[in-house]
């Protein structure tokens, strides 16, 4: 993980701090000059893996309240850029903070435009950072952090003033709803505790008059004033700043403030730099003053860190997948060994049992082929039961039919009459006689025969073909009415016939 380095820049020097687990460690002080810039460049050579955050406390800082129409996207950004150019002469170190929208039909947006109006003071330091290619996360100001600091210390009020000592001067910030709308620095001529206390009281009154003149507060409006003070100076400040007029003073112990913020290295004097630096390290604002060119290396570092995180995630996923597959392979290997051992045991038992069987004189493969063939022949073997069942019913219903011979076979014989061709048919050939009374006519004989044939055809699986009818009905012979009598006397007429019944064998 990249280290977090904090840079504190004022009018005369830049101080570098390392922040680790709630502790601030001073690592170097660099004066504003060629010698200090050279030392700062050497300091950056060993900080390639650090992320820098620059906190500025300078007097050249401007704040302007603006109202723009409701816009979005590129149009809004273009208008903000034009407004910043108008107010701050195109300073590249500028930012716009949205204060919400007006509650009317036009829905205009209220903005706080802030800029560091002396970018030349920052250029030498930023140039050394760019040359060293150390990632710069952003540029922030003490005024920007005043509102969040006051909120964390419990000084929530709709309008209030925060006073703190910074670099032999007093930082005065006017905070509205947790956001700094105005801030300035007032020099201190007397650095004694009594002088600092009187300066706090005087500057609070001056700031109140200025805010009234700018119509930022009402003349009769009560204005809370919060002062962050070093513990030994609190009694003197308390005596010098009693509540008077519309000013109500509240003193915040800097050591108690450090404990509340989680800072383990509290301020050692009246200066409140450590509180702002710790707040910047733990809760940096979303907006800052550095341009995209200044943060180029930081963006590359973020992309690099994202790629590394993605690679590590993919590697971890691959390792987990490989471990899972290895576990499954080990489980399958163990199960395979168990199955092989079980198979060997069952094979041994089979050999033991099969050795007690009577010997057949043939091997197992031949025996298996014989049993398979026997099963196949058994499936193909059929009996004439189904074919004869319908025939018997027809004979029962027509008593005049007398059967002489029945031939039954599966398939038809081939032309050489020595073998039966394969087929899916069973053929029943029926030879019989029609026995009626001597006085029966030909029509009666034919009617009896046709009744018999129709009964055979009731079975849908049967196909009936007449091989020989009871009468030879050929075209060259004349059929006479008296031919119904075949035998004289009381003996019955006997008319032979032959019928072939073809029945399809179901698969």
Sequence-ordered SSE layout with sheet pairings:
Elements (H helix, E strand, L loop, with lengths): L2 E7 L3 E8 L2 E9 L2 H12 L4 E7 L4 E8 L4 H16 L5 E8 L7 E8 L6 H10 L3 E6 H11 L6 E8 L2 E8 L2 E9 L5 H21 L9 E7 L4 H7 L6 E7 H8 L11 H10 L13 H59 L9 H17 L4 H13 L3 E10 L14 E12 L5 H15 L5 E7 L24 E12 L3
Parallel strand pairs: 1-4, 4-8, 9-12, 12-13
Antiparallel strand pairs: 1-2, 2-3, 5-7, 6-7, 9-10, 10-11, 14-15, 15-17, 16-17
Helix pairs in contact: 1-3, 4-8, 5-6, 7-8, 11-12
Description:
The strands form 4 sheets. The chain has a 5-stranded mixed β-sheet. A 5-stranded mixed β-sheet has the order 11-10-9-12-13, with helices on both faces. α1 packs parallel to α3 and α5 (193-213) crosses α6. The chain has helices spanning 34-45, 73-88, 123-132, 142-152, 193-213, 234-240, 254-261, 273-282, 296-354, 364-380, 385-397, 442-456; strands at 3-9, 13-20, 23-31, 50-56, 61-68, 94-101, 109-116, 136-141, 159-166, 169-176, 179-187, 223-229, 247-253, 401-410, 425-436, 462-468, 493-504. The protein has 3 domains: 3-60 and 118-294, no CATH class; 299-348; 385-504, Alpha-Beta Plaits (2-Layer Sandwich), CATH 3.30.70. 39% of the residues lie in helices and 28% in strands. It has 507 residues and is of the alpha+beta class. The protein is elongated and about 160 Å long. A hairpin with a 7-residue loop joins β6 and β7.
């Amino acid at each position: 993980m990249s280290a977090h380095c904090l840079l504190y820049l004022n009018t005369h020097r830049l101080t570098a701090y390392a922040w680790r687990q709630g502790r601030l460690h001073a690592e170097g002080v660099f004066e504003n000059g060629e010698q200090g810039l050279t030392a700062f460049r050497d300091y950056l050579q060993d900080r390639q893996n650090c992320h820098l955050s620059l906190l500025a406390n300078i007097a050249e800082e401007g704040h302007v309240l603006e109202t723009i129409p409701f816009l979005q996207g590129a149009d809004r950004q273009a208008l903000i850029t034009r407004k910043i150019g108008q107010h701050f002469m195109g300073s590249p170190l500028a930012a716009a903070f949205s204060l919400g929208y007006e509650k009317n039909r036009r829905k205009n947006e209220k903005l706080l435009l802030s800029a560091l109006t002396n970018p030349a003071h920052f250029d030498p330091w930023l140039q050394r950072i760019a040359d060293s290619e150390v990632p710069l996360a952003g540029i922030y100001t003490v005024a920007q952090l005043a509102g969040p600091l006051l909120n964390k210390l419990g000084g929530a009020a709709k309008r209030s003033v925060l006073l703190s000592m910074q670099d032999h001067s007093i930082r005065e910030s006017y905070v509205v709803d947790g956001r700094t709308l105005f801030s300035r620095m007032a020099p201190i001529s007397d650095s004694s505790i009594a002088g600092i206390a009187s300066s706090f009281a005087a500057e609070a009154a001056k700031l109140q008059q200025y805010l009234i003149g700018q119509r930022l507060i009402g003349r009769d409006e009560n204005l809370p004033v919060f002062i962050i003070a070093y513990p030994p100076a609190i009694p003197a400040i308390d005596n010098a700043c009693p509540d008077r007029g519309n000013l109500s003073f509240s003193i915040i112990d800097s050591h108690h403030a450090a404990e509340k913020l989680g800072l383990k290295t509290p301020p050692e004097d009246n200066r409140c730099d450590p509180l702002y630096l710790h707040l910047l390290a733990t809760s940096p604002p979303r907006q800052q003053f550095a341009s995209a060119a200044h943060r180029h290396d930081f963006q590359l570092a973020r992309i690099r860190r994202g790629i590394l995180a993605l690679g590590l995630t993919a590697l971890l996923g691959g390792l987990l997948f490989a471990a899972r597959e290895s576990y499954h392979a080990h489980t399958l290997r163990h199960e395979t060994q168990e199955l092989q051992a079980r198979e060997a045991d069952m094979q041994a038992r089979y050999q033991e049992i099969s050795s007690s069987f009577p010997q057949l004189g043939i091997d197992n493969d031949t025996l298996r082929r014989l049993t398979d063939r026997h099963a196949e022949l058994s499936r193909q073997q059929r009996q004439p039961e189904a074919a004869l069942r319908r025939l018997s019913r027809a004979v029962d219903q027509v008593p005049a039919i007398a059967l002489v011979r029945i031939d039954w076979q599966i398939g038809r014989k081939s032309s050489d009459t020595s073998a039966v061709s394969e087929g899916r048919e069973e053929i029943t050939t029926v030879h019989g006689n029609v026995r009626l009374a001597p006085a029966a006519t030909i029509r009666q004989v034919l009617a009896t025969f046709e009744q018999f044939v129709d009964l055979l055809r009731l079975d849908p699986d049967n196909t009936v073909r007449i091989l020989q009818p009871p009468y030879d009905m050929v075209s060259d012979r004349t059929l006479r009415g008296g031919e119904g009598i075949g035998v004289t006397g009381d003996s019955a007429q006997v008319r032979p016939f032959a019928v072939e019944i073809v029945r399809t064998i179901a698969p």
